[in-house]
Design brief:
heterodimer, A: mainly alpha, MetI-like fold, B: alpha/beta, D-Maltodextrin-Binding Protein, domain 2, eight-stranded mixed β-sheet, three-stranded mixed β-sheet
Chain lengths: 313, 332
């Protein structure tokens, strides 16, 4: 074993290296444990008062100290899922184009621009959403969609600000994550696989849909999960455009609220003990949601690799 | 090895000694007065050498830090109640006043739309839904008001501005007092929330038919059209430092300085006005308390010009004298 070879007389660099990296890795676990402990202990007063009813209650009234998490949980999931629905086809399209179709000289610039989207600060997205996207939504896109108001998604007065604008902004924000991971995974598809497909007489479309995407689907799923995780926790940009109204609504025109947004809005000025504790409990709920999502994704990947014809098989 | 240690200790002792020569005051809290405080504290250090660090982390953070004793003073937009002050052994007093403007976006209508205070309350209760409601039309003959729906905007973040605005709505409307109440964050019957003054202003600017409320300084500097509001004595007053001074002059300020003077009497009083506060532990160590009293005294005597330039309203002179006397007693 390489680790047992002593290179220098008095100092065992290999052992120190192993110990050091292990300590660094373990520090993540310790940090996680401290966060969980802190969230649990600080949300104690809220839990004592509202119990599990907190999760199903729709009230949010700081004046009479009645709190419920349901509108925020709903808003968090609704906007994140919508963002994913918008971002996934776009990201896959970009990834497929870049790996399969684009001329080589175009790959660099487009890939660079997409990754640049990830470098824009959240607040800038929020302000852009508030001052540019929301008016476009209100004057052009939402009045058009309002024709289909027999659908539950397009009811009410087109405000511009609301769930729809928030979802679009988040979609743009998670797009680089999903597309660059998908692209990297698609690059790893062996050239022989594609050539095999082509040799069998497949068209480009058939190669992409029957060879490249199935081969890289577990990697794509990984990108989707990372993107979804980012969408769940996105704070500043969403807060600026979602309208911050705790209600449960299907209509994309209506304002909503997310867990991260209510934390950003109310944490700094929360002075009552219960109010503060309730906000920490919301943080705990977001934490649990993230863990559940990640675990579900891991499980899905595992099943896919085991039963499916997943990557490499 | 020993020599190095000795050297290090000497350097440490020297720097610690240097830091003690000039007193440093640490404060934390409200964001609303931050532009003024940072200007004041900067000038104060230049003139006196006393350094003041102020972190604008929000009133909530300011209150909890001053209670925990991690800062010398805290700042809050809303005053604490007597019981809380007593329990935490804090002294609070107003530092400066400010007004809140009601702003709107009506194409073709400039600043100065007249709104009775009851009308404002009914709009925020969701009872008045259209701009051509008789209650609005009656006070504005000759103004072209259409059946455009009213989009109500409010602050989504906890804020002293919301506290003052909901105090005002409580004073005006018994229904508001019963159903909603007042505070830095409330359960709004209608409307959408924007984060910060810029968030509310953003909603109002982007949305035709919107109404909102922002700090006066923010409305004037960004040239947003604002309403002239009906006050308790039946006059209509535009938001201004003068209107706010008139309202503050009428305020009855008790010994704990918990003052609420929204919807104040007086025909020139602007109805949505309030103080922002500083909090200091009564048992702050004497040298720091003396420095703190010096800072406040300086700001009261020399700071009015800076305050007015930034659209804040200096508190009445009589009140300043009372606070200075109280601080003098504490600094003994």
């Amino acid at each position: 074993m390489a680790g047992s070879i002593k290179r220098s007389g008095k100092f065992d660099i290999e052992r120190a290296f192993r110990g050091g990296t292990a300590a660094l890795a373990l520090s993540v676990l310790v940090l996680g444990a401290i966060i969980v402990y802190e969230l649990f202990s600080s949300s104690g007063p809220a839990f004592d008062r509202f119990g599990f009813g907190f999760i199903t209650s729709r009230d949010w009234d700081p004046v009479s100290e009645l709190y419920g998490a349901l509108p925020f949980i709903w808003g968090t999931f609704y906007t994140s899922i919508l963002a994913l629905v918008i971002a996934l086809p776009l990201s896959l399209g970009i990834a497929v184009f870049l790996t399969e179709l684009a001329p080589v000289w175009l790959r660099g610039p487009i890939g660079f621009m997409v990754e640049l989207l990830a470098a824009i600060p959240s607040l800038v997205y929020g302000l852009w959403g508030l001052f540019v996207l929301a008016p476009i939504m209100q004057e052009h896109i939402q009045p058009f969609l309002a024709q289909y108001d027999y659908l539950p998604f397009f009811k009410g007065y087109p405000l511009g600000l609301g769930i729809m604008t928030a979802s679009v902004i988040v979609a743009i924000m998670i797009l680089p994550t999903i597309s660059s991971i998908s692209r990297e995974v698609m690059y790893t598809v062996p050239e022989t696989q594609r050539e095999g497909g082509l040799a069998l007489g497949m068209t480009r479309w058939e190669v992409v849909s029957k060879v490249v995407i199935p081969y890289s689907r577990s990697g794509i799923l990984g990108g989707v999960i990372l993107g979804f995780g980012r969408a769940l926790g996105e704070t500043m940009a969403v807060t600026m455009v979602i309208g911050n109204t705790p209600q449960i609504t299907m209509s994309l025109f209506d304002p909503g609220y997310t867990i991260a947004s209510v934390l950003a809005n109310e944490f700094a000025e929360a002075t009552e003990k219960v109010h503060l504790s309730v906000l920490v409990e919301l943080g705990l709920i977001l934490f649990v949601i993230s863990i559940l999502m990640n675990s579900a994704a891991k499980l899905l990947l595992w099943r896919m690799n085991r039963y499916g014809s997943g990557s490499g098989s | 090895m020993k020599k190095v240690l000795l050297l290090a200790l000497t350097v440490l002792a020297l720097t610690a000694g240097a830091a003690q020569a000039g007193i440093t005051l640490n404060g934390a809290g409200a964001t609303f007065p931050y532009p003024l405080y940072s200007k004041w504290f900067y000038n104060y250090e230049k003139q006196t050498g006393t350094r003041v660090n102020y972190q604008s982390i929000g009133s909530g953070g300011g209150i909890s830090q001053v209670k925990a004793g991690t800062v010398d003073f805290g700042a809050s937009d809303a005053p604490l109640k007597a019981k809380e002050l007593r329990e935490a052994n804090l002294f609070q007093f107003p530092m400066v006043a400010g007004a809140v403007a009601v702003v709107y976006n009506l194409p073709g209508v400039g600043s100065g739309l007249k709104l009775k205070s009851q009308t404002v309350a009914d709009i925020y209760l969701g009872k008045i839904k259209k701009w051509n409601d008789p209650a609005i039309v009656k006070d504005n003959p000759g103004v072209n008001l259409s059946a455009m729906p009213i989009i109500v905007a409010h602050r989504s973040d906890g804020s002293g501005t919301t506290n003052i605005f909901t105090w005002y709505l409580e004073d005006v409307s018994s229904q508001w007092k019963l159903e909603v109440g007042s505070g830095k964050a409330v359960k709004w019957p209608v409307g959408i929330g924007g984060k910060g003054n810029e968030g509310v202003a953003g909603v109002v600017r982007q949305t035709k038919g919107a109404i909102g409320y922002v700090e006066l300084a923010y409305a004037t500097e960004n040239k947003i059209t604002y309403a002239t509001l009906g006050n308790r004595d039946g006059g209509f007053v535009a938001p201004s430092t003068e209107g706010c001074i008139a309202a503050a002059a009428s305020a009855k300020v008790p010994d704990d300085y918990y003052a609420r003077f929204t919807y104040a009497p007086g025909k020139d009083s602007y109805p949505i006005s309030g103080f922002t506060y500083l909090l200091v532990p009564r048992n702050l160590e004497p040298s720091n308390m003396k420095a703190f009293a010096g800072l406040v005294g300086w700001a009261f005597e020399k700071g009015d010009k800076d305050a007015k330039a930034l659209h804040y309203v200096p508190i009445p002179d009589k009140l300043k004298d009372r606070i200075k006397a109280d601080l003098k007693k504490l600094a003994k």
